[in-house]
Amino acid sequence: MLDFVIQDRFQRILESITLIKARTAKIEKATDLVRPEDGALLLDSIALRLQVIGEHVKKIDALDSSLFPEELSLDPEPIIRFRDFISHHYEKTDYEIIFDIIKTNLPELESKISGFLTSQK
Which residues contact 54 (CB under 8 A, 6 or more apart)? Predict the structure, then answer.
């Protein structure tokens, strides 16, 4: 059985992914994240959620460093490093990288965590 604290952190990661997906449902290209009418607000909210995801990954990895590479087949280091980058150098964050993370990395992360949590029941 999965530790409650770790399970809760995984659930919070999934919540952040769900929020990002909802906020970006109409985003088709990277430049949509910087459009004049609402781009900055959208980009800020997504970056914050990516930071939250990274923080939870960092704490899960500290509690059980075998979960990501062994159970999820996932390297936590890029997620943690991106969290650290957003936290300390937000003004240098590239909207195209965030767009790529949304479209490429988040679906995989969501799938792996959802599958993992389902297998733990």
Answer: 79, 80, 82, 83, 84, 86
Domain boundaries, the chain: 4-119
Tokens representing 113? Answer: 């965590």
Q: What are phi and psi of 12, to 5 degrees?
A: -70, -35
pLDDT in tens, 63-109: 999 999 898 999 999 999 999 999 999 888 899 999 999 999 999 99
- Long-range own/partner contacts, residues 69-75 (CB < 8 A, 24 or more apart): 71/116, 72/112, 72/113, 72/116, 73/112, 74/109, 74/112
